Amino acid sequence: MRARRIKAGVTALALAASVGLTTVGTATSSQAAGGWCSGVKIAAFPGGPQGGVFANNVYNGYKQAASDLGAKVKYYFSDWDPNKLISQMKEAVATKPDGMAIYGFGGPEATTPIVDAAEKKGIIVTSLNSELSALQAKYSTKGFGYVGAQLHKAGLDLANEIIKRAALKSGDSAFVWGLKGAAGDRAQRTVGVIDGFEAVGIKVVYQEIDQATNTSPASGAPTFAGIMAANKGIKAVVTDHGGLTATAATYMKAANLKAGSVYFAGFDVSPATVTAIQSGYLQLVIDQQPWLQGYLPILQICLTKKFGFSGLAVNTSGGFVDASNVKIVAPLAKKEIR
After folding, report:
1. Domain span(s) for CATH 3.40.50.2300 in the chain
2. For the structural domain made of 151-287, what CATH number should be given?
3. Which residues does residue 124 pair with via DSSP β-bridges, in sequence order?
4. 3-state secondary structure 289-335
5. Measured distance between the N- and C-terminal CA atoms of the chain, rounded to whole angstroms
6. Pick from 148, 129, 127: which is nearest to 138 by CA?
7. What is the pLDDT of residues 268-317, one digit of tens each?
8. SS3 of 156, please?
9. Rounded distance, CA 181 to CA 206, Å?
10. What is the reported pLDDT for 33?
């Protein structure tokens, strides 16, 4: 599992260690006294609701980096709402921070003018979780990097792994609950899953994640139950959302399905995900290591501000977690750093 994860991230983590990475999970302050990045003000976007699955791991990464490096960080939780994210980014630019760590789920069309305005003010912008490739190309020499998964590939890899492990074949049905309608690159992970299934003749039953379920995954239980009742032959389920994946047991119970009766897979590790794997309701996840998606953008901005480094591109995804190795990540998931 680790061999598949540690690629470009090794270099970035070694660099983080060289500037004084403290014990993981101990940060309580947003600024370390005398840190080499002290005085640098950063606006950081954890993504989802405060305390929510995935977003909290990113937030913990942000906090640890702020503590280690000495940067002063202001956080903007967006509830996975693109409109709220865009509004908050405009608000952040107006405060004139030294840097901004942004998500791409607002889409390139809405995000580009905001980043252009920020760059004109001398604000260093970098991205995480979903790529903004044109902006990265335009501003990479000014510190615009990317930390996250290669989304279409991650979706495709998960689909292929499910096909192999669940012994799916042409004519079988799979339910994909995703974000194909999301703006920009974020949609590509769902598209990758669908492409992988359809390439071998698997019938895809698709449902877009609505905003209510996007923000509060448990509210989607009736939707899941309805889809499964209307499609009795479904053999595999993929939820393209860390919060929904963490809610696998709730969904299965709402649909009166026994653990393991369908092959349930998704993305991201959390305490609830670990429990779902251990109880047999969830079979497989890709771990995209969201803590790194918080830590490394703060490091990126500090490196660019202090030393003029250009943008780093780090793929944090690629490792699978299942019943055979979940014990390795379980203690770290409990601390919300994996």
Report:
1. 2-149+289-318, 151-287
2. 3.40.50.2300
3. 99
4. CHHHHHHHHHHHHHHHHHHCCCCCEEECCCEEECCCCHHHHHHHHHC
5. 14
6. 127
7. 999 999 999 999 999 999 999 999 999 999 999 999 999 999 999 999 98
8. helix
9. 11
10. 53
